[in-house]
Fold:
Amino acid sequence: MEGHQRNLYLYDRFNARVVGVSVDDVTTLKYWAKDLDITFPLLSNVTGFLGADFGVVPSPEIKGYPVFSRRTVIIDKKGIIRYVKDGSPDFKDILLFLKKLNQEGGKP
Amino acid sequence: MRRNVWVLLCFVLVVMMLSACATTERAQKPYKFSQQGTVIWNDEFEFKPPPSEWKVIQVEVGGEFGFGFLRGDPGQFPSQSMFVYDEEPFGCSTKFENREEEFFKRYLWTTALNMTMRILEKQKVHVLGGEGLAVVAEGEDPIKKEKAKSKVVFGKRGDRVVAFYITQWRHIDGTYDPSAFEVFDKFVASFKFLKKSFYETL
Structure:
């Protein structure tokens, strides 16, 4: 999340907006955002349905609890998913993809 | 019999050639020395190398910093000194004063300074061809009987804040060695960018 915050000015340049999704509750996310100085929106999705909708694999570490592995998804302005990658975000790869998408005119 | 020896010899030669190839690949280093004796790191950074007792350290995947140098110091555990160049230091702000606060919130945890930490010095400096901020901090962990002293120098690369930092860990009764900080200062003063960063080229 900190990496996304650092790149906000570049996301702006490429007409992109970032949203974080977590299964933590709102209070926890508020505290967390304040502590890390995060200014972009964080969505609290305690039931984890968004994770399931985006096909994120539940973490094998905590069975029976809606904890999902990390996944980065880029959606274009038409609502089409254009980029999906699991694991820690590859910020350089994300920025290059957003730049390309912006040049194509398919603003995310 | 003679043919078998010949085949065996060919086999040994092929294995030796393959081993040599593998060794060359493994031994590939991210740095080389210039004719002036400076280090060229990944064709991107140039700096004066520290004395030979400082060993190169590098984080390749998921690391918290890029590369640096580590030295084991005499004395009780955990006597050692480490300094690094960090392209993505903790925090997000592009203003040094704010970044320093953000940085120390998390850096303390990684240095074991978190029990009792205090800022000893904070001053504007000239670094990387522009304005920067140098901060010296110290802290102890009375439970583990350890202490550490850090100096962090924030500078700019394009729009983004980068940082150099040194941490020296000691047993709580140990004394700090200022020579490591002098080596660090020389490293920082000599550090140059040889090309634009990825972010500057976007």
